[in-house]
Automatic annotation (TrEMBL):
InterPro entries from the UniProt entry: MTERF, MTERF_sf
GO biological process per UniProt: DNA-templated transcription termination
The entry's keywords: Transcription, Transcription regulation, Transcription termination, Transit peptide
Name assigned to this protein: mTERF protein
Coiled-coil zones: none
SMART domains for this protein: Mterf
Organism expressing this protein natively: Arachis hypogaea
Domain of life: Eukaryota
Family membership: Belongs to the mTERF family.
A Pfam family the protein falls into: mTERF
Amino acid sequence: MFCTSQSHSLTVSYLIDNLGFTPQSALNTSKRHSFKTPHKADLVIAFFKTHGFSHSQIAAIVAKLPRILSSNPQTILPKFHFLASKGASTDDIVLLSTRNPRFLHLSLKNNIIPTYAMLKTFFQSDEKTLRCIASIPGLFMEARLVKNVKLLADAGVSDSAIGYLLRTRVLVLLSADLRKQVDEIKELGIDPSTVKFAIALQAKKTVPKSLWDAKVNVLKSWGWSKETMSEAFRRNPLCMLSSKDKINEVMKLWVNQLGWDPLALAKIPWLFGYNLERRIIPRAFVLQYLLAKGLRNKSDNLCLPFFIPEDMFLKRFVESFTEDMSQLLKIYHEKKKMFMITA
């Protein structure tokens, strides 16, 4: 008991005197790890200083991982050498170590090297691989990452699709129920060899089930069937990232104000992602005018007018109708100034 109390006291004093800890933070840290002599701690601190770590960065590492003070610096050095051999700068290594010190205790042979090799398979270059690791230092800690990447590869998901997830939504690859999502998306008929499959996974994992169901109910209220929703999702999985209020507002405009078929939106689900006031409303009312005047056929492509850039839209759907151009411009600019839709 005396020895334990003495080691705690020594650790507290050491943290305060050498790393600038407050008495309370030093006491809390000593409860997680303490030492009887400062010899190893001195070596560790000297090691970090030699390799470009500032006083505050060393303190941050110790606060997160107190047992690092009892480590052998020679077990850490090979990890620094490995990263440096891949092109990591001193600042890169310091950042990675400071943000996730547990990396310093991982096995180089059994964890760091194989995980790095797997990531590089998809990023192709050391520069891009290091950038990914720097943005999410905890990747080396995630055994599930390697497992899920293999799961996707075995399911026929292409390297480009897996790479997309690693670059944009790596948390999808850390999911415990990824197989279930993969099977659901396959059932919808989305080709796993395409990047769209990865985007569909992203959408499925980003939206909580309760919110997903709420969006489904909104679409059902406008007459969409399960098949209609599947069609829209296949065309553009990101449509389900729009809020349920946004989906409802687009539907109200489309059906109540314009009198158009709500099922037509399943063929252009990108529309739910566009800005309502600045893009959808002004263009929709221009199209409504053209349809009413017989200047456009109902069977014409509905996607194109909303998809093209503004200058192209004005040239093709406003300025090309010289006799009606002034009225079309008036409609377009008036509607663009609207900030609210009346149901």
